[in-house]
Design brief:
Elements (H helix, E strand, L loop, with lengths): L1 E8 L3 H12 L5 E3 L3 E6 L2 E7 L3 E8 L2 H18 L16
Antiparallel strand pairs: 1-5, 2-3, 3-4, 4-5
Length: 97
């Protein structure tokens, strides 16, 4: 399995976590609360954590194509929901499993 993690610095992390999870729940299995969530994205699971300063997202997939798709899904949706903050996500893949 491959994984990638990104951190979006924002005071609205919990809001975006809930917004992403509610949106994903229309199509995939999701479990979340105010501070953490998990969405069963088609390429692999996305795990989200919110604190007072940032939203951290880790995506996992079986191969590079799936990992790239999972990162795109998060980039695209967070970009739409947090458009006022113009998120520019940098993904760290150094902790691949």
């Amino acid at each position: 399995m491959l994984s990638a993690t990104t951190r979006f610095e924002t005071p609205h992390a919990s809001k975006y976590l809930k917004q992403l999870c509610k949106h994903f729940a229309h199509k995939v299995s999701v479990d979340y609360d105010d501070m953490q969530g998990k969405a069963a994205l088609p390429p692999g699971p996305a795990v989200l954590y919110a604190d007072e300063t940032a939203l951290t997202v880790t995506v996992t997939a079986a191969d590079q194509k799936g990992l790239d798709l999972a990162k795109f899904i998060i980039d695209d949706h967070l970009g739409r929901f947090a458009f006022r903050e113009e998120p520019s996500l940098t993904w760290d893949t150094s902790s691949r499993s």
